[in-house]
Design goal:
Layout (H helix, E strand, L loop, with lengths): L1 H54 L3 H29 L1 H18 L6 H15 L2 H10 L4 H11 L2 H19 L8 H23 L12 H16 L2 E3 L5 E3 L5 H15 L1
Antiparallel strand pairs: 1-2
Length: 268
């Protein structure tokens, strides 16, 4: 019995170690990516007063432009997540970040309400699928019992964006207030797009799609993670009305992508 207990303890320790390794390898970079996304989404709020004054926008024009972002975001969430599943997280997350960085930077060129609306709408299209895509990506690495911690780690970026984004945006607006090249709010869009662009390029080199492709995992660790994920997919159950357990067909990863996107869309 002692030997069996010892083996069980060793197995649990090994499992803990492999998921700790995965967490510290992929989650800090994902948090940085989310931080960049959040800054590019909300920097229009920091630019609001100067932008409205310089361009002569009314509150109604600004409000509609700020809100139209979410129309594009909503429309492209499901197609984006399906594309991620088909093309791989590394390629698709990089595409998302690079295109939203370019569009965010180009917002400095807007001069009319229509241009503002177009820029915000396409920014929403570009960023759509990022958060649902990360949710899906995490299911490739963590079983359900470990995923809660990973998601908590991921959402650290929301308060972090407020802590970092506010002071940084304020410093940019203050430092470039007297610029003769561009207005301070234009510098804000340009400079805060740069981290997203650099992070998007870094994704192509640093992100790994699935455990079996991770050179920093041993073969035994890869097998352990994949076995756990296959076991979870094969043992999904639902409660029947009679309180019995009914076995259901495992969801494919494509089904998982659609389901996660619907959940994230409803939550948004």
């Amino acid at each position: 019995m002692d030997r069996v207990a010892s083996l069980g303890l060793n197995a649990r320790v090994a499992e803990t170690n492999v998921y700790r390794k995965i967490t510290w390898r992929i989650m800090p970079f994902i948090v940085v990516c989310y931080l960049c996304a959040y800054l590019d989404r909300v920097n229009v709020g920091f630019a609001k007063l100067q932008m409205m004054s310089d361009l002569g926008f009314s509150d109604a024009v600004y409000g509609f432009g700020a809100g139209i972002f979410f129309i594009g975001y909503f429309l492209f969430e499901v197609p984006s997540n399906l594309a991620l599943h088909r093309l791989g997280a590394r390629v698709w997350i990089a595409r998302i970040m690079i295109t939203w960085a370019i569009i965010s930077a180009l917002t400095l060129l807007v001069a009319t309400p229509l241009q503002f609306y177009v820029a915000r709408f396409f920014l929403g299209l570009a960023e759509a699928g990022f958060s649902p895509g990360i949710m899906l990506y995490l299911t490739y690495w963590f079983p359900a019992k470990k995923r809660g911690f990973a998601l908590g780690f991921y959402y650290i970026a929301i308060p972090l964006a407020g802590v970092v984004g506010g002071p940084v945006s304020g410093l940019i607006l203050e430092h470039f207030a007297g610029s003769t090249v561009m207005k301070a709010w234009q510098w804000l869009f340009l400079l805060e797009a740069a981290p997203s662009l650099l992070a998007g390029i870094a994704v192509l080199f640093l992100m790994v799609d699935k455990p079996e492709q991770a050179s920093w995992l041993t073969e035994a660790e890869k097998a352990e993670v994949n076995a756990e994920l296959r076991r979870e997919d094969g043992e999904k159950i639902v409660h029947g009305s009679s309180a019995a357990f009914l076995r259901v067909r495992p969801r494919s990863q494509g089904d998982r992508a659609r389901r996660l996107t619907r959940i994230m869309t409803a939550a948004a």
